[in-house]
Amino acid sequence: MRNALSALVSLLALQALAPAQNNRHFFYVEEGGLPNRFMTRVNAATRVGGVNTAEVECLTDLSAAAFRGIGSVNSTTCRVTGQVHIIQDADTSTGDPYHIILRQPVAPDGLPDGTNAGIIARSGVLNLPVGAGGGGAWQITVTWQTPVQVPCETGFYLGVVLLPQTSSTDYTLTQTASLFTPGATPPGTATGDNPRQPAPKFHAVRVDQPSGTAVRSTTQRTLTMIALTDAPTVNVGNVDNTVGGDYTSFGLGGLYPAIKTGTRDDGLAVRIEDETNAGGVAAAFLSIGFLPGGFDVSGLSGAVWIDPTTLVLAAMGPIPAVTPCVFQTVMAPPGSIPAAAGVTLTFSALTFGNGGGRLANAQSTTL
To answer: What is the C-alpha separation between 177 and 173, in angstroms, rounded?
Structure first.
């Protein structure tokens, strides 16, 4: 199956693109691509949503157990500027409609509230680009004209609303990041999400309308959906040398690495992105837990979301002066982390540059 050209689509209901620095959060690396790329198209056969006869929402869970302060301006205000997603179109000769959506959880780290009260923001109707016909997939970046405020500490969901299919041969689906496939042919296709199996939690959820019923995925697949923010982002990845080339997996791999499990012995990598501080410096910090409520630091944007009493410097390096403005490094090589089943490490970051000092979100990694 071929993929259509990537398309940049603005929200019909929200007018033009906003002048925001769109740093990425929660993503997947594509083979041979830029650090901003987030999935392998070769292994993207599994989708969530199905051939739908009613409205279905396909959502990614940015849960309170794993993330704090995504897009934080300060300790009380967090916001996202948009999202990236991949939608499969069974017939590209028509521009099928859909929406993007953000939802509240029913409780911290809970399922999404599928009612109208649970909607944080929902776009007007968007239409997929028109292609040459046949099946294809569109990688789409959508930016809100005004950043949307999201919970800083209770988690939230972002995703797409797929509308009822037009016909039995014209319908839409969402793509997923596949599992890592060691031994794939050719070797360059052996990419995908690489957490321990099974992962403690799956982060793909669907909500069926009009009932509003939410169901978490029971398979280890994660939707190709990325939150965009104008704040710095930190993403943690696992580094697995048992599958060749010290393969680094973000997404579920970063949340649930396979430290001292079976034949795998993963290390940890960190990725820090800040387009505002291009050409500056990034520092990653490690702690043993989140800091409830966070706190503001005079002279810095964002907030501190990790426990400062156990904070240590984990890595530091330059931010490239041109896009993608990403500092990425291996903090702990494979084999360097002792067995510590159930221990949770928590990471955050600080960037400095022409934009001043900027604090990033926090992300946990459960060993």
So the answer is: 13
Q: Cα separations (Å) of 286 from 170, 223, 271, 304, 335?
A: 48, 27, 13, 12, 18
Highest mean pLDDT range out of 2-6, 19-23, 210-214? 210-214
Mean per-residue pLDDT, 113-140 = 91
Segment 324-366, tens digit of pLDDT:
899 999 999 988 887 777 889 999 999 999 999 999 999 999 8
The token duo for 8 is: 């940049």
Does some domain include residue 2? no
Dist CA 199 CA 179 (whole Å):
11
Report the number of secondary-structure helices (H) and strands (E) in the chain. Answer: 1, 28
Which residue reads 């957490």 in tokens? Answer: 195
Cα 108 from Cα 33, distance rounded (Å): 35
Angle among Cα 310, 262, 314 to the nearest 5 degrees reads: 25
Alpha helices (runs of H) in the chain, residue ranges in sequence order: 252-255
Domain assignment of residue 1, yes or no = no
Beta pairing class for 172-177 and 155-162: unpaired
For residue 169, tell me if it sits in a domain. yes
Which position has the token pair 């929402």? Answer: 57
d(CA 160, CA 88): 12
Predicted structure pTM score: 0.86
User: Residue 14 falls within a domain, yes or no?
Assistant: yes
Encode 50-96 in three state secondary structure: CCCCCCEEEEEEEECCCEECCCECCCCCEEEEEEEEEEEECCCCCCC
25-64 core/surface letters (b: 16 or more CB in 10 A; e: else): bbbbbbbeeebbbbbbbbbbeebbbeebeeebbbbbbbbb
Query: Is the omega angle on the peptide bond into residue 257 within 30 degrees of 0, that is, cis?
Result: no
| Residue 187: DSSP 8-state | G
Lowest mean per-residue pLDDT among 138-147, 183-192, 206-215, 335-344: 183-192
Q: Could you list the residue range(s) of the whole structural domain that residue 57 is in? A: 7-366
Q: How confident is the model over 269-318, as pLDDT tens digits?
A: 999 999 999 999 999 999 999 999 999 999 999 999 999 999 999 999 99
How many domains, the chain?
A: 1
